[in-house]
Amino acid sequence: MGLEAAPGALEAEEIQARGFGRVREAHAAELLEDYAELIDDLVRDGGQARATEIARRLGVSHVTAVKAVARLEREGLAVSQPHRGVKLTEEGAALAAHARARHRLVLDLLLALGVPAEDAKADAEGIEHHVSPATLAAFARFLKGK
Amino acid sequence: MGLEAAPGALEAEEIQARGFGRVREAHAAELLEDYAELIDDLVRDGGQARATEIARRLGVSHVTAVKAVARLEREGLAVSQPHRGVKLTEEGAALAAHARARHRLVLDLLLALGVPAEDAKADAEGIEHHVSPATLAAFARFLKGK
DNA sequence: ATTTGCTTGTAGCCAAGGCTACATTAACCC
DNA sequence: GGGTTAATGTAGCCTTGGCTACAAGCAAAT
């Protein structure tokens, strides 16, 4: 593979495969982003992000939340002390900020296109993780030019 | 939970949790959709959908593709004979048609918003699975009114 | 200071979606 | 027909993201 004739068709297939690969990577990243974003939210308007609270907001068991937090720590995005909640590191906060901005933009776009608020909120949650910078830029352009 | 005061805040949290739950469900469904769509493609313009070819297009090992096909069969979406390729059942074909239409619409929307073709293709692959009927309808409306 | 109750932690399970390495089977070309 | 090559299948492993059930810790009320 790689040095054949008929480059058109082959390229298209490779782009397709790459696309799927990208989706798989996005999935791996999205959990971290969701957790980071939520922790940031909780700290902002509560001062603390407790595992139980995180679990409740995400609709998962506390164990799942704790495991996810452990993963955040492993990746250097958060720190937590046993009974004193979770805090984001600088890197984690940056990730959260980025995710939040993207989320906001996606949501605004959906609303601008006339999607009902509830659906827009729910869909934005899923869509945001699959929006490349190029697409995000296009969204921003559209919203500005409106 | 459920009978407290301050219904506003609680409701918002529940909507959030529901949104995340929806995303998780979408993930479980999307693999099936991707495979169904691809199999449909391959059968259309090749007559056959072989496991190896599916694997190549998706950028995964043949084993992974075979396992996914087995899951499609388990769910009644496809049938396959050992060395004679995979075919979609009626239900599988319906799923594929639905996924294809949605995919097309998402892609068209991205293109209409000025996203470069390559990025649009890659992003559509990820976004399509998180677009609710309401959002899809809004996309269609926008494209028509353009 | 004890009890009671919420929050954390631990153990052990499951399915999905990946992989590599090895075995088998079909197909095609002499 | 026999052999080579490519497609399938099988075994066994890993990680993620879920779960339940049980154990331990902290805090607050009596």
Oligomer: homodimer
Number of strands of chain A: 2
Report the C-alpha radius of gyration of chain A, rounded: 19 Å
The CATH top-level class label of chain A: Mainly Alpha
For the sheet with most strands of chain A, the description reads: 2 strands, antiparallel
Per CATH, which architecture of chain A? Orthogonal Bundle
Specify the CATH homologous superfamily of chain A.
Winged helix-like DNA-binding domain superfamily/Winged helix DNA-binding domain
Topology:
The structure is a homodimer of 146-residue chains.
Chain A: H1 7-44, H2 51-58, H3 62-74, E1 78-80, E2 86-88, H4 90-112, H5 117-127, H6 133-144
Helix pairs in contact in A: 1-3, 1-4, 2-3, 4-5, 4-6
The first copy, chain A, binds a DNA duplex (30 and 30 nucleotides) through residues 24, 27-28, 31, 50-52, 60-64, 66-68, 71, 82-83.
Could you please describe the fold and organization of this structure?
2 copies of one chain form a homodimer. With 146 residues, chain A is mostly helical. Helices cover 72% and strands 4% of the residues of chain A. Chain A has a two-stranded antiparallel ribbon with strand order 1-2. Chains A and B meet through helix 1, helix 2, helix 5 and helix 6 of A and helix 1, helix 2, helix 5 and helix 6 of B. The structure holds a DNA duplex (30 and 30 nucleotides).
